[in-house]
Specification:
8 helices, 2 domains
Length: about 180
C-alpha cells in the first residue's frame, strides 16, 4: 500500500489496525465470529490426548543417557580417563538442566504472564552460564582429559531434548506401547 503525496516520492502508508485485522482475517480465512471456545468436555479431552512433558523426566532421561555414554566409552576404550571425560560431558548437560528444572518448578505456581517469561529467561541464562563454566573447568578437573569423549558425552546427552520433544508429540497410545 503506497500513498502518493504531491511533489514527493511514494512512501508507504501505515495501515490502520482495522485494515491489518481485515487483511489478516482474509488471509487466514477466519473472522472473530468463526472463533468457538471449547466446551469443558472438549478441553478435558484435549488435555488427555495432549501429553505433558515433565522437565524432571527429561533430566532423568539425560542422566540415564549420560551413564550409557560413559559405559560405552568404557567398553570401547577401557580407559578410565575417557569414561570420566564422557561422564563429565554428560554432567555438563544434566546438572544445569536439573537446576533449570528446579528453578522453573519453584516459580511455576506464583508467576503469571511476562513474569513467567522473565523467570524462564533468567533460569535459561543460569543454565547456559553454568554449562559454559563447567566446560571451561573440565581441563582442570579431569586428569588426562579426552576432549572427544567429553564432546561425545555432551552432545549425545544434549540430544535427549530432541528425543523428548519427539516422544511428547506422539499419541499416548503409541508411547505406552514402547
Amino acid at each position: 500500500m503506497t500513498k502518493l503525496v504531491e511533489g514527493s516520492q511514494a512512501q508507504p502508508a501505515t495501515p490502520s489496525e482495522a485494515e491489518w485485522r481485515k487483511d489478516s482475517e482474509e488471509e487466514l480465512g477466519a473472522t472473530e465470529e468463526d472463533f468457538k471456545p471449547l466446551a469443558r468436555e472438549e478441553a478435558d479431552k484435549l488435555r488427555r490426548v495432549t501429553p505433558v512433558l515433565s522437565l524432571w523426566r527429561v533430566v532423568l532421561a539425560q542422566l540415564l543417557v549420560g551413564c550409557a555414554v560413559a559405559a560405552v566409552a568404557w567398553m570401547l576404550t577401557g580407559r578410565l580417563a575417557v569414561v570420566w571425560s564422557a561422564g563429565y560431558g554428560a554432567l555438563a548437560v544434566v546438572l544445569p538442566a536439573a537446576i533449570f528444572a528446579r528453578g522453573l518448578s519453584r516459580q511455576q505456581s506464583r508467576l503469571q504472564g511476562s513474569a513467567a517469561l522473565a523467570g524462564f529467561v533468567m533460569w535459561e541464562m543460569v543454565k547456559v552460564a553454568l554449562t559454559v563454566a563447567m566446560l571451561l573447568l573440565a581441563p582442570r578437573l579431569i586428569v588426562d582429559l579426552s576432549w572427544l569423549a567429553l564432546v561425545a558425552g555432551f552432545v549425545v546427552t544434549m540430544k535427549v531434548y530432541w528425543a523428548a520433544m519427539w516422544f511428547s508429540r506422539m499419541p499416548k497410545s503409541t508411547v505406552n506401547n514402547f
